[in-house]
Structure formats: C-alpha cells, structure tokens
Amino acid sequence: MATTVTDQAVRGPIRLSFFFWIAVVMALFIFSGFTLTYWRPMASGNLAPLPPIVHVHGVVFSCWMILLVVQSLLVNLRHVPLHRTLGSFGIALGTALVIIGALITALFADAFAPDSTNYYDLMYLSVSAVVGFGTLFVLAIRNTRRPDFHRRLILFATIPLLPPGINRLYQVSMSLPEVPVLATYLTMDAIVAAMLLYDWRRLNTISSASMIGAAFVVLVQLLHIPIANSDAFAAICRVL
How confident is the model over 195-217, as pLDDT tens digits? Predict the structure, then answer.
C-alpha cells in the first residue's frame, strides 16, 4: 500500500531559531514602549495633536518591526521564496524608514529648546539611529546572497532603532525624570552580547557580520559623550 508523506514530514519539524527570538525581543521593546506613549493614548483619544509625519513614522516603524519578525519566521518555516519576495518590500520599507527618520530628527531639533532635558542626548540617539540603520541596512542588502551574513546584519541594523522604544518603556513605567540613556545602552549591549555568544557557541568564532554590527553599535555608544557635548554637534542641531 502506498504511503503518503506530507510535505511537513519531508521538511522535518519546525524549530524556531535564535534569530527569530532576537527579532521578537526587539519588537517587544518597540511595541511596549510606544504602546505607553503613542498607541494607548491614541486608542483612548488622549493623544496630543501631532504632525502627520509623526503618524507616518509610527506606521513605517511598526511595519518594519513586524516585517522583521515575519521574515525570520518565514525562514524558520522554510518559505524562502516568499521571504525573498517580501524582501523587495523590505528594501522599500527600509529606505522609507531612513528618509522619514531623518525628517523626524529634523522635526525634533526644531520642536524643543536646546536647553531642554536630554536634548543633545536624544538628538545624538536620533542621528546615530538614522546613520547606523542606514549603513548596516545597505551592507545587509548588498549581501543577500550570503544568508548568514545578511540575517545578522539586518538584526544589527535594527538595534540602533531600539532606543525610542526602550527609553519610553523604562522612563514611563518607572516614572523616571530623565531619559535613561545608560540603561538603554546596556539593554542594547545585552542583545549584542547574546548574538556574539550565539556565534561563539555555534561557530566557535565570531562571524565577520557580527563583528561589523557589534563594532558599529559599541562605537556609537563610546562616541556619545564626546560628540553630544561638543560645539560641533550643537552647530549641526542648529542647522537641522
């Protein structure tokens, strides 16, 4: 008697990868933080009036985090053709994220007085997010034919985008008077460390993609104080 073998049996059991869970963790930070300051106030009708570009930014940002999780899941489910098809949309979405992020940074520079609390810290986080994501995103797209390199760089590219969500989550939930920059960086470093440890345990080395991504994230943090407190950066903020 002929035996019908299901496609799932041929493919083997589905195992959610480490990269999928890292994407989920990053998405949780973003949606938890923005739920407290954006989505929940909007749903209750208590959100203060905002320029339309802010809402566009919220939608694009949210779509990127959702796409990150979905793309990781598709790879785990072995739906690689669909993953590649959505990749074209991801390129457009990532490009839009850079452009809108730059506009939001300029809007923030004009909306608040330079002597307001954490002004230059937040401006530095905003500028470094646009530059960091844009740089690592381009490197990731240029290496789509190297899946291991590509997936790591996409995740590392998303790490510079996390501070707004992490800041909001900590500041609102703990009623902090100022933006917790150090706690935000330590949270980002924990994600970086987890990815480096994964490489070391699985490969007995650190992949070149992880070294590039980690170096970029850490370098931005090391340069925070000297750049954010410099006259040159203050001049850039005035130009914006």
Answer: 999 999 999 999 999 999 999 99
Q: How far apart are CA 126 and CA 161, in angstroms?
A: 8
The four Cα atoms 225, 108, 99, 90 give a dihedral, to 10 degrees, of 80
- Number of helical (H) and strand (E) elements in the chain, helices listed first: 12, 0
Q: DSSP letter for 96, please.
A: H
Rg (CA), the chain: 20
pTM of the model: 0.89
Cα gap 209→138, rounded to integer Å? 13
d(CA 183, CA 186): 5
Neighbours of 208 (CB within 10 A): 13
pLDDT digits (tens, 9 = 90+) for 7-44: 444 455 678 899 999 999 999 999 999 999 898 998 88
* HSE-up of residue 202 (Cα within 13 Å, Cβ side): 13
The H or E element that residue 201 is part of is: helix 181-203
DSSP codes of every residue in 165-189: HHHHHHHHHTT-SS--HHHHHHHHH
Q: Report d(CA 129, CA 126) in Å as an integer.
A: 5
Confidence check: pLDDT of 167 > 60? yes
Q: Residue 230 is encoded by which pair of tokens?
A: 């410099």
CA 122 to chain centre: 16
